[in-house]
Design brief:
Blueprint lengths: L3 E8 L4 H4 L13 H4 L11 E4 L3 H10 L6 E2 L16 H4 L3 H8 L12 H21 L4 E6 L1 H11 L16 E7 H6 L5 E4 L9
Parallel strand pairs: 1-4, 2-3, 2-4
Antiparallel strand pairs: 1-5, 5-6
Length: 205
Amino acid sequence: MDDTVAVALFRHGLTEANKSHAYLGWTDSPLCPEHKNKLATAPQGYRRIFASDLGRCMKTAAILFPDHSIEPCPEWREMHFGEWEGRTYQELKDNPAYQKWLEDPFSGVLPGGESFAAFTARVDKGWQNLTDQLLQGNNSDAAVITHGGVIRYLLGKYAPEEKEFWEWQVPFGRGYELRWTREAFRRGVRCTSLQEAGLTGSPNG
């Protein structure tokens, strides 16, 4: 059995709602045709492919990994923005509740949505499920097609270098690969190497 474990985290492709900078949590939006055409197949060495069950991730996964079966998992969804789903900063900027949330987005509660604590607890559950499946089976690598908030949170927790949540740059349709020894992965510590998924060298942000 391979003594290393690799997990690649890919962000979904750009959507129409992303172009307008709308809060797009559990609401879905189609991929932009011009960006969809720029997506290319990812390295095909990953044995398990997981994805948020939202359409923009499932469709991106089918483009990146056309020869794999995709395992949808709701734990990999973006944060639920509640009443602010599909709305933009310009639409919300005069809302007192929104102004208060912007001051402390990691502690505030979104009306009708998730708190950051609830969001991260859900993602942690998805990560634990992924960990269990990789360690219990004869698997040493997996890819996850998910969302910007999910990837920023996981990089903040598992990347070799500590950075703040918003310091991580996560372009649409791109990803990072994290690698551990199998024992380090089992212990849930920070990974030993991080690089852009499918590319050589270290990412800049």
